[in-house]
Design a protein that fits this description.
single chain, Ribosomal Protein L22, Chain A, 4-stranded antiparallel β-sheet, 24% helix, alpha+beta, 5-stranded antiparallel β-sheet
Length: 210
């Protein structure tokens, strides 16, 4: 499958989404992996995880129009080996997403709305946040909160962040797409972020560039 989304979010923030329909051999033929990456790939015992991993590299190469290698720091935050872009990655079910910027911090999360997210909402929704009482939109509203906090977690470098205590999404009425505001706060930090969210089929996608 070709890229299903290739969108310039602003002057320097590029989002790509790939729908995984290929088999292992097809995706593998589209990347040029070094020995370390081959060992990482073959170390995944789950075939779906292998396809996810490969699809990220194929999508990244399509977006950058070159062979690009991903490396990770101790917190498993991804970077490009050549430092040409900041990168954030997410995948769920059959979709893979990559967010790139040469100058800005980036964070993206996408989730297929399959779980009973209300069962775990108490773990990430705090008392300053608002969830609609409209039963038709409760699940979507919770997923937007969850994905927004995942995106913030990534853009803030994944260090000592509690989703409930350190991340807050300002109250908003949920629609199929829009912009929301989130904050990362602790004893030393109170930083605000603007996030874009959208619903695509049954997937929620939230991204942030700053």
């Amino acid at each position: 499958m070709a890229i299903v989304v290739n969108e310039l979010i602003d002057s320097d923030c590029l989002m790509g989404i790939w729908e995984i329909e290929e088999d292992f051999d097809t995706l593998f033929s589209r990347v040029n992996l070094d020995d370390d990456d081959k060992n990482t790939l073959l170390g995944f015992k789950n075939p779906e995880r292998q396809l996810e991993w490969l699809s990220v590299r194929v999508l990244l190469n399509e977006l950058t129009q070159q062979e690009s290698k991903i490396v990770y720091n101790e917190e498993r935050k991804p970077f490009l080996a050549d430092n040409s872009h900041n990168i954030s990655i997410s995948h769920s079910k059959k979709l893979t997403s990559v967010l790139l910027s040469k100058t800005k911090r980036v964070g993206i999360d996408l989730e297929y709305m399959s779980h009973r997210i209300n069962n775990i909402a108490h773990k990430f929704i705090n008392s300053n946040e608002y969830i609609t009482s409209n039963i038709a939109f409760v699940k979507l509203h919770m997923y937007v909160h969850w994905c927004a906090k995942e995106a913030l977690y990534k853009i803030c470098d994944k260090k000592n962040i509690n989703f409930k205590d350190n991340l807050t999404i300002k109250p908003f009425e949920v629609e199929h797409e829009g912009y929301i505001t989130g904050t990362h706060h602790d004893n030393l930090i109170n930083e605000e972020f603007k996030l874009k969210y959208m619903l695509r089929d049954n997937y929620v996608i939230v991204l942030c560039c700053k």
